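Attaching the record inline, Q. Sequence:
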Amino acid sequence: MLNAHDVAPLLGCQPSTVEAAWRTGKLPGVRIGQHWQVPESALREGLHLLALCNMQPVDVPAAVPKLPPPMPAARAQETRGRQRREPPALPPLPPALQKS
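Structure, as predicted:
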């Protein structure tokens, strides 16, 4: 398993750039706890697929399977530590304040 500090020198970028690519789904990776990791074989395969997709003309349907879509923002918020609670229900207005 490789972490961002292992992958960054291979790609010639900063570890934060690798983590951003994992968050957006541009690179294959899995978040384990607070850290992202990727098996070396999955990274090689993902980069290979990206290279093949970049070689294909736009109008030709790609026979290469695509990477999974990035995690929706709402889902990403849920996985960041504590989960949000529903706000409490408001009590009904007293009859004197209700509009007729």
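The first strand starts at residue 2 and ends at 3. The helical segments are 4-11, 15-24, 40-55, 73-78.

More tomorrow.
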